[in-house]
Write a structure and sequence with these properties.
Elements (H helix, E strand, L loop, with lengths): L11 E5 L3 H11 L5 E5 L2 H10 L4 E5 L7 H11 L4 E6 L5 H9 L5 E4 L4 H12 L3 H16 L6
Parallel strand pairs: 1-2, 1-3, 3-4, 4-5
Helix pairs in contact: 2-3
């Protein structure tokens, strides 16, 4: 098959949080970005998706019932070592969460809740290795979409 006939694979971002309103907000922020967004409401679903899909970026909440975010990140290093991992937490100053996440979960970045939409988008762009110009073009498109009221709720 000639190169131009091959389908373009969009990068995939997996968001994991036990709070559905947080998942919806992450999906809304990343909607319109040149990526596919998958959502998981617990660690087990996240690990299943990591085994089944090629995930480029994993955004995972730290505090979840059952399997916490640190355990998900630890498992992700084995299941999908090339996946870039981002920890989302309301407890950025908690050394019991942050230090193990950095050392054992090999996180790329730590984002605090509530997050700044622009910072979240920049972090995903950095994780995907987007060039600054491509990131700025996407930001412009997203701002226009938001200004025109096209954002998902």
């Amino acid at each position: 098959m000639p190169l131009r006939d091959q389908p373009v694979r969009l990068p995939t971002v997996l968001c994991v949080d036990d709070e559905h309103h947080v998942l919806n907000a992450l999906d809304r922020v990343l909607h319109g970005y040149d990526c596919r967004v998958l959502l998981a409401s617990d660690g087990w679903d996240a690990l299943d998706l990591l085994e089944q899909e090629e995930i480029d970026v994993l955004i995972c909440d730290a505090a979840m019932p059952g399997m916490d975010g640190l355990e998900v990140l630890r498992e992700a290093t084995t299941i999908a070592p090339a996946t870039v991992r981002i920890l989302l937490t309301a407890h950025c100053s908690n050394e019991e969460v942050v230090i193990p996440a950095v050392n054992e979960g090999e996180i790329f970045r730590l984002l605090s809740k509530p997050w700044d939409d622009g910072e979240l988008r920049r972090t995903v762009a950095d994780a995907l290795g987007l060039e600054p110009k491509a990131w700025l073009e996407q930001q412009h498109r997203l701002r226009e979409r938001d200004r025109n009221g096209d954002a998902r709720t």
